[in-house]
Amino acid sequence: ASWADLPEAVPQVFIRPPSGWDEDPGVVYEVRSLLYGHPASARCLHYTLDRFMSESGFNKTGFEESVWICPAGGECQHTIYMSAHIDDTLILCEDLDTLQRFKNSFLTRFEGTDEGEVTEYLGCDIVRDR
Q1: Which of 36-40's residues contact partners 24+ apart within 8 Å by CB, and which partners?
Q2: Of 64, 30, 44, which is closest to residue 110 (Cα–Cα)?
Q3: Residue environment code for 73-92, b if the CB has 16+ CB neighbours within 10 A, otherwise e
Q4: Helix ranges restricted to H, the chain
Q5: Which of 4, 39, 63, 90 is the most buried (most CB within 10 A)?
Q6: pLDDT for 113-128, tens place per residue?
Q7: CA Rg, the chain, in Å?
Q8: Which DSSP letter does residue 34 get?
Q9: In 3D, which of 36, 34, 27 has the Cα closest to residue 12?
């Protein structure tokens, strides 16, 4: 994610060198890409993610801005659902091959890890009844 991903102008952000860093007094650094924890970083990530999802054949589901669906038959062989909260995502699909192809595509674009089958998401325990 970068500043360019935001649709509105964001003021320049400057930071001091980290403590212990050998730098001349009064020197500051301009932040050229978003830092985790910066107020605009989550919004920038969402815009970047939304653009990727749209390009991958997904649509937002109703009023929820962070849940997407890719219906079967278009870009996706089987229907895929994806939810995102900041940098936590949950991806669901009934077909493992379709799911794996999408996860590979997603992890090629975004740095992340595949934690396998979900057991907890956003503080909620997930129990599957198969």
Answers
A1: 38/13, 40/3, 40/6, 40/10
A2: 44
A3: eeebebbbebbbeeeebebe
A4: 41-55, 96-109
A5: 90
A6: 888 888 888 888 988 8
A7: 18
A8: P
A9: 34
Which amino acid is present at 94? E
Q: What is the DSSP letter of 24?
A: -
CA dihedral 112, 81, 73, 61 (to 10 degrees): -120
Residue 14 is which amino acid? F
Amino acid at 47: Y
What pairs with residue 125 in β-bridges?
120
Q: Which two tokens stand for residue 117?
A: 């089958």
**Rounded Cα–Cα distance for residues 20 and 23 (Å):** 9
Give 23-68 pLDDT, tens digit per residue.
Answer: 887 888 877 666 666 667 777 778 888 889 999 999 998 888 889 9
